[in-house]
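Q: Sequence in, structure out?
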Amino acid sequence: MTVDTKEKFDAKLFESIFRTSKKTIQEYVREIERYCRFKSVQHQVVDGAVLDDRGKLIDLYEACVQQDAHLAAVLETLVSQIVGERYMLAKQNAKGKYVKDVEETKKIQGTQFIKIIRGIVESKLYGYTLLEITPEIDERTGRLKEVNSIERRNVLPDQKRAVRRQSMWSPGWNLDSPQYKDNYILINSGTLGLFSATTPLILAKKFTLANYVNFSHTYGQPIIHGKTDSENNGDRKRLANDISSAAQNKVIVTGLQDEVDIKTFTMSNSEKIYTSLIETVNAEVSNLILGSESMAGATQSYVGSTRAHQDIFRDRVDVYREDIENVMNEEVIPRLVKMGYLKPGTEFKYSNRLEMSNKDKIELYTFLTDKFEISGDEIDKEFGITVGKQLNLDVGGVGGVGTGSYEGHGPMSDEEYYKRYGRHRGVANFLRERR
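A: Exactly. Output:
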């Protein structure tokens, strides 16, 4: 077993090899087999004799993210649900309610903190993430100056070690060392990540898509057939050239006996072999990461199905947010407090507000404004519309019950109300009258 290098941990010293093109399922199978061998013997040999090296597996993962538009879109949909003004630093009061600390919350907003959130989510996708948090504060913004996600190819996650050269044990740095524990956070899901299930599907999809393109080139374009009575080979070539140029010129002149015919293939739905496989892969990827294919753009046959998928999607997003909260409160926030960047006593928390479409929000506010007074600031914050006094709010009557109005003449008097409805206004009078 070799000792750790005496050099200070520096990600700029890392040497990595990137191979993210022309990936095959056979490469994926080899990496799964290699990981199985590591898991089988990791507790039986000393460190350095066997490596938890996932560099080539990361190549496969990144190749799929780079080259598959559907997977990239699914990931952007996921990120859109976990960043933004949805989280805060808060203190819990005696009633168990979290009260937002505005000043401290401002410190965890901005691009650097988003890197931390993305890194936590990516640990579920890739299997692990190593974050570097520097203690320096940006003088211009007053926030964290730099947060880095360490190159995964140089990290041995199960062995909690970063190495300078990919696939080599030494020189390297032990992440459990006291000098690194405060600034480096290894988030290890304990698995190969969700991408281990999506990668073979996407590799198969790329092969299918290539075959589909060849099929379209062969059978998707019609053949133009020209026929002439001339037996002269030059005349036939001239007619062929005229036909090929007619696609651009839109004009062709032939002899009296010449014929031009467009031969189209009878549709047999043969292309469904390819399109159905591609659609199946897209659905499986969406269901695995988002919990619902409809949330990634697929259409549903009826409204009830769409709502059911929305519920599943929101539940899945809640799970991601809960994982982020746990890692933040157990790993990130204590380190930031120790650095002196944050004050002690606060917790990272996502807000409990409902995630709704604009249509659902409008229906909810329409329902609430008839029963409760809604602040104009709340409407402005939610919809960006500046409003004045709430017109349907009239205070008066017995017990604070609204008097209402009738026929545009202003509020009814108590006597008019009794004459019209045969009972006194207000819940208290009504109950007294019934006794």
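The chain has three domains: 1-220+278-355, 221-264, 358-434.
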